[in-house]
């Protein structure tokens, strides 16, 4: 029923166009890697440029979010799509030039990355509030998590298919997607205007720094898990002498996560956001423990399939808490700050797990997964205990309306 209601609220066309609009993000890193490796015949340089691109995405994301809050999602979304299209064109041109120009162009692609995922979550928040359908937000965020996961399954598979034709083909296809999906999506569905600029008497509310820092670190941990799992399945595929198996095994991770994310729409409202965050952090740790032990005792594909179901619920709790904690005027920058933790964590997870995998194989890479999941659980528990002791979530998020405080605390509105 919840998903049927989403169709009525957003319109049928929102969903296919929105899915295609986020594919350039899912194809970006691999397309860059393939293009630059073919141009330079150096995996080391291509990997370095791809890592720089991921860091640039993390740096540029909050900037795009801040501009969207100030000037409106439509204006900034359209500008980002056009700039990103130009950045890809520059990267294609640079692929015939010097390594310095390739590196600069790859970084520019990251800086101009349209923030479809974070901004569309803000869009959902405003849409359901304007229609007085607050109860649909959980379903909307669940759908978005599933769509993200599926995009990261379909995107790399799409790139792999095109790369067999030409190393230029994935980059050209990414530009085509930007022009035919990301740009039209921003034009049709993004909010036209920003919030009014605050007067001298009413200053723009500050972001809740401590809670947002917790959410950012939690997303860094999730990104590190993604990066380490990618390394682990790549090593596994090499050990069985089937390099192509890595994509199939990692696709299991995305599909299981997408299914679990879709199911989160039916979680009961009395299961509060704080309780979900702590519970799903614990579930994530159990899932990664199953992955670590199952890879050794059973098989990597089977362990990945089971562990994948613990990923999306944890991520959805981070998105939902961030949406609740941020003042409406700063929602886009808060969501993009949260999402910036993903690529940073992925780069760190790949680097650390890659070093351990050199000497300890799949087990070394998965050890990173287990340690990071344990750290994520400790972070959630420490934040929960601090919250109970000092009530920091509600104090720092004071600009948020009373309904938000009620949901975060699980108490009546007049409790404070």
From TrEMBL:
It is a multi-pass membrane protein. The chain crosses the membrane at residues 45-68, 75-94, 168-191, 212-236, 248-268, 275-294, 300-321, 333-352, 364-386. The keyword Membrane applies. It is found in: Cell membrane. InterPro entries: MFS, MFS_dom, MFS_trans_sf. Keywords: Membrane, Transmembrane, Transmembrane helix. Residues 211-416 form the Major facilitator superfamily (MFS) profile domain. The keyword Membrane applies. SUPFAM superfamilies: MFS general substrate transporter. This is MFS transporter. It comes from Streptomyces sp. 900105755.
């Amino acid at each position: 029923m919840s998903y049927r209601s989403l169709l009525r609220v957003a319109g049928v066309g929102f969903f296919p166009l929105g899915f295609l609009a986020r594919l350039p993000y899912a194809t970006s890193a691999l397309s860059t890697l393939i293009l630059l490796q073919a141009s330079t015949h150096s995996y080391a340089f291509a990997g370095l440029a791809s890592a720089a691109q991921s860091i640039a995405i993390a740096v540029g994301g909050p900037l795009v979010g801040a501009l969207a809050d100030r000037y409106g999602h439509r204006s900034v979304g359209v500008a980002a799509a056009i700039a990103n299209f130009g950045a890809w064109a520059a990267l294609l041109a640079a692929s015939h030039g010097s390594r310095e120009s390739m590196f600069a162009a790859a970084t520019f692609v990251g800086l101009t990355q349209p923030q479809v995922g974070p901004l569309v979550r803000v869009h959902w928040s405003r849409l359901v509030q304007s229609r007085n359908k607050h109860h649909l937000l959980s379903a909307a965020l669940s759908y978005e998590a599933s769509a993200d996961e599926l995009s990261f399954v379909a995107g790399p598979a799409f790139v792999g298919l095109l790369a067999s034709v030409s190393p230029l083909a994935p980059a050209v296809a990414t530009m085509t997607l930007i022009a035919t999906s990301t740009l039209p999506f921003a034009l049709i569905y993004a909010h036209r205007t920003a919030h009014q600029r605050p007067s001298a008497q009413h200053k723009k509310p500050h972001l809740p720094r401590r809670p947002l820092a917790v959410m950012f670190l939690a997303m860094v941990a999730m990104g590190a898990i993604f990066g380490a799992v990618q390394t682990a399945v790549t090593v596994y595929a090499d050990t069985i002498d089937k390099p192509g198996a890595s994509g199939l095994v990692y696709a299991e991770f995305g599909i299981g996560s997408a299914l679990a994310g879709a199911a989160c729409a039916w979680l009961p409202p009395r299961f509060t956001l704080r309780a979900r965050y702590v519970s799903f952090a614990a579930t994530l740790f159990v899932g990664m423990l199953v992955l670590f032990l199952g890879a050794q005792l059973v098989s990597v594909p089977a362990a990945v399939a089971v562990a994948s179901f613990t990923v999306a619920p944890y991520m959805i709790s981070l998105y939902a808490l961030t949406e609740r904690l941020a003042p409406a005027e700063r929602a886009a920058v808060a969501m993009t700050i949260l999402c910036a933790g993903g690529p940073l964590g992925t780069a760190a997870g790949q680097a650390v797990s890659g070093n351990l995998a050199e000497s300890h194989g799949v087990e070394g890479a998965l050890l990173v997964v287990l340690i990071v999941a344990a750290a994520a659980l400790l972070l959630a528990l420490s934040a929960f205990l601090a919250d109970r002791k000092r009530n920091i979530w509600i104090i720092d998020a004071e600009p948020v309306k009373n309904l938000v405080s009620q949901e975060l605390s699980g108490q009546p509105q007049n409790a404070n």
